[in-house]
Here is the input.
Amino acid sequence: MAPSDKLRIATLGGPGTFAAQAAERFVGDGSLTYLPSAQEEWAALAAGEIGAFVMLAESSTTGFGELARRAASPDFPYYVLAEQEVPYGCLLLAKPSSGPITRILGHGSVAQCKPYLDAHYPGINILTERTSSLDAAAKVAAGDGSLALVGTAQTAAQFGLEVLARDIDGGAVGRYWLVGREPAFAAAPERLIVSARVRGGDALSSAVVQLAEAGFAVESMAAWPTGTAMFEYDYLLRLNGEGEIEAVHAAAPNLRLLSATA
Here is the structure.
């Protein structure tokens, strides 16, 4: 059974958001609900009101994001049950027969489209909605025709917006995580996500060597300063390979295993 089967999953906004088009890939036999803000997603997971939520962890354009930074901390109490790579396919939308665009709205996807927006709309004010792209879409639909939106095809249909430009993200891909309360480690994983807080020494390099001996090689790594001690960092590592979960636990007892999926 897939980790998402039978789970009540939440994601941001509603049908038509970029997070929603990713979340649909995780649902399986579970259910999908929408929450208006990331803060409410975290609160619902902590309270046990949902089994997991879907959120962007990394993109090919901007790298690791806030979710990954939080997951790297040893205080992070959750697990990555599954992940999916989802193309953005960002559209630039506006009201039909709109006039000159003076502001461009969006949510997290705006960052994926910055090169295009800077080239085609230089000097235009770009605003990032704090909640979701659907709130931004409502403002564009109710506006005077001077607003544009970075959104999806479903959002265009829902709010009656026309497409000014397609695929403005340059082929950006987002890696989305299904974050849950309980671990779901595969017996013979092929992908690992681990975290560690390291302050000098060779603890991290030793763990990487031990994981390599267990069959896993580092694919990517990110680090964030803890802000509490010199040269102390929280690390997040993604590894690929083939091995047994028992060997993983034995190889890296000082690392926190966040995900082990087949």
User: Anything to note?
Assistant: The mean pLDDT is 93. The longest helix spans residues 203-213. The CA atoms of residues 38 and 85 lie 20 Å apart.
